[in-house]
Design a protein that fits this description.
The protein contains 7 helices and 9 strands, in the order E-H-E-E-E-H-E-E-H-E-H-E-H-H-E-H. By secondary structure, the protein is an alpha/beta fold. The protein has a single domain, classed as P-loop containing nucleotide triphosphate hydrolases (Rossmann fold, 3-Layer(aba) Sandwich), CATH 3.40.50.300. The strands form 2 sheets. The protein has a 5-stranded parallel beta sheet, with helices on both faces. The chain has a 4-stranded mixed beta sheet with strand order 4-3-6-5. Helix 1 crosses helix 7. The mean pLDDT is 89.
């Protein structure tokens, strides 16, 4: 059985990466999205174990001490991390997994898993990112400014990713993600031809 692909999707808050990942999974039910853990409180409509594992700071720190995260980082005064167990299990079963995580986490995983595929999502402009952040109505004005400032530092790291997708329209951006997945599945090192050689 071939090892599953580990696909990292990062980008500024408000870039639409969550929407794109959800649509990609809808179109590709053979793929799975990893559920991250966080110390922030749920937003309206978010559910524990589905959108995130919502943990207290103490619970999160205990998992760090137990080496229970594939990666973790502090973002906007909260902590986010990827529980290691479910990811390793799905990859071993040949399931392609999407991790929707921040840039710090993506680069941490690249060090541990050089074969990981890193995709950076962004908006067509800073103005569009600000419009989306204000339009979703979930953040205070001061927090929006922090997120915009953080977005600038994240964009600097985009050159270290394998792919850059500009989320101008959801349909176009998801199509690009599908093309990336197909291209990566066609790499010789990922293919085994029964009765013949593996590359």
């Amino acid at each position: 059985m071939q090892q599953g692909m580990l696909i990292i999707v990062s980008g500024p808050s408000g870039s639409g990466k969550g929407t794109l990942c959800a649509e990609l999974i809808r179109r590709r039910p053979d793929m799975k999205i990893s559920v991250s853990a966080t110390t922030r409180t749920p937003r309206p409509g978010e559910l524990h174990g589905i959108n995130y594992f919502f943990l207290s700071p103490d619970e999160f720190d205990k998992l760090i001490e137990a080496d229970g995260f594939l990666e973790w980082a502090a973002i906007y005064s909260y902590k986010y991390g990827t529980p290691v167990g479910p990811v390793k299990d799905m990859l071993a079963r040949g399931i392609d997994i999407i991790l929707e995580i921040d840039v710090q986490g993506g680069l941490q995983i690249r060090e541990k898993y050089p074969d990981a595929i890193l995709v950076f999502i962004t908006t067509p402009s800073r103005q569009e990112l600000e419009r989306r952040l204000r339009g979703r109505g979930t953040d205070e004005a001061g927090e929006i400014e922090v997120r915009l400032e953080w977005a600038g530092s994240e964009l600097v790291q985009a050159a270290r990713y394998d792919y850059l997708v500009i989320n101008d329209e959801v349909e176009n951006a998801v199509h690009k993600l599908e093309c990336i997945v197909e291209a990566e599945r066609c790499r010789p090192r990922r293919i085994v031809i029964p009765g013949w050689i593996s590359y």
